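Hi Prof. W.,

I finally got the DUF3515 family protein prediction working! I wasn't sure whether to trim anything, so I left the full sequence exactly as given:
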Amino acid sequence: MAGVLAGCGSPVEVPPGEAASDPTCARVLQATPDELGGLERRSTTAQATTAWGANPAVTVRCGVLPPAPTTDRCLSVEQPDGTAVDWIQLESDDESFPDRARDTQGSWAFVTYGRVPAIEVVVTAAHVTGQPTAFLVDLASAAQISPAERFCVGADDVR
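And this is what came out:
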């Protein structure tokens, strides 16, 4: 039992994003919840990162490279006030898919679209009881702190 508890107490290894020192990232991370999807927050090894749950943990990195315009799946997560955060769902064969997520069978990776600095979320299958996108709903208010410069465009938006 002591070994299990010690494993939960050690920091989660998460590499920093390229722009982790952006002051906006500090505000984004301060706005993330202490509990996410019933998982408790854990410490991490890098600036502008946080994690929840036992290994493999659900992780957030602020300051990752913003994605260029893409045809990858875009999810708009709406807030009660009518604002939305756009997230690109990265496919496992995408070169920007995080290596640490590749090592964990069945992980999902999402990155904010049109926001600088960009925010990456890796959701591991071990912590999903419903939809992996449920974590994005809980993180949307923190992600909104990073200003939106572009938005996803759907087929109905193009004429």
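The helical segments are 2-9, 23-30, 99-102, 134-143. Does that look reasonable to you?

Thanks,
D.
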